[in-house]
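Annotated sample (chain length 516).
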Amino acid sequence: MRALGVARVSTQEQAQGDRYSIPHQRQRITDYCLQRNWELVDMIDYVQSGGSNYRELQHIMQRIKQDHIQVVVVNELDRLARDMVSTLLFLEELQKLSCRFAAVSDDLDLTTPDGELKMMILSVFAHYFRKQLARKVKGGMDERARQGKHHGGRPPYGFRFVGDKLEPYSEEAVIVRQIYGWYVHEGIGAREIAKRLNNQGIPTQRAQGLWASPEILRLLRKPANVGDLQHGALQFVKDRTGVTHKHHRTDALIIPDAHPGIVDRETWDAAQGIMQSRGQHSGRQADSPYLLSGLVHCGLCERSMTVIKARKGRRYSCRTYHMMGQCQPNSVPVPDVEKAVIEDWLNRMTHPRREDIQTWVEWKIRHDPHQTEALRESARLERRLVDVANMRRRAEDALLQGAFTIPQFKETQHRLDQEVSRLHNTLQTIKAELQRPATTDEIQLLQAELQTATATFQNASTLHERRELLRRYIHHIAILPGEIRIFYAPESEKTDVPSRSSFHRGQGAQPAVPPV
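Output written by the structure step:
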């Protein structure tokens, strides 16, 4: 009988050990074949962790077909794969090819019913070992992160490793502070910052290539720059073909003040706010010389408007009509729009109505970063409730199959009941916080903010500061034939209620209704 031996180790260290070494596995497989008078055609060796080894298993299948192999021999079943699904599917494919399988240490032969039963039991244990190992490794990494320790890899730009913690690297930290200064205090966009760094000949972290706006934005978002440690932001998942997919997680662990920062928290928070406000705008809009860039939309097709140069000055024009010939001619002088918007905005800030203040406060509560984090935590708890329900069903199945005794089942149910009760209590607390009404202090704070907003706008030294201030309150501006409508942030969520800030275009762009 023609046999193919397979020897696998999970790490390079195991490749040099005694029990798990490849020479040890080779010898055991060779002796096993000699005892049964099998012809050992070849031996396949590879080093790979016990996770998905789809490509290696496919290579074995090709050798079986190519060399007319009749039996595949391994030293132990978990040397084939520790993934139960992969093991079962692979052995099923072997049976389709009329190829036998043998595991030396497990005395496993799939040609007998006893061998098939034994194979399934051993595969379950191999799968359990892999899951337990992954859980222990993850728990250890999480604990190290809570202690402010890194797991190696390349340090972020501006830092160096000192032991297992980050310390600012003076030569690069100066550049990081300069980038934040340009972005936050001077209002310079990411593309212009990259251009300045390239013109000054400042190398990137890898000293290869040039700076680009995406790299600048990634640097500005790094929690490490303010001294925080982010752990678990990326999740790598292998599919059945062995291809690894990268997913960004929203529930990453953030350890505040885990190491010395490069910039203060106020500057870092300001940079995050600017990036969030620019989230729907391109780099060109962020660096635009126009006050309302990115806010003005055509009220007919709801697409953004672009600035065109006309004989009587620059005008906002429907981009769809100007670029594609669709929609309708719809344009308005840039100064008219800016004047109408500024007058109405200043009037709203100076003389807000009581109901407007209440609406603003409720909107700010819903969009507060703490509220956003509470929503994420609520979603995480909801997912955990689903997991607990699945665990309960698995426990019931285990009881029916005899894997659980009645006392074990009751203990498991009691533990799950306690967790469900705790999750429901936490969810009720979070939902009560999310639905709470505005307090008197919050209303007074908003009134003070509105009163100082006009002075901040008039005293702003750069166009960028004025534009960012307006974007904090204005969601978008719709241009209709003969009319300019301003949709403030709270009003943008009421799709069935038109904005009350409506202006007719004409001499001086006077309001059609009294502004609020």
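Annotation: The CA atoms of residues 261 and 474 lie 34 Å apart.
Annotation: Residues 113-146 form the longest helix (34 residues).
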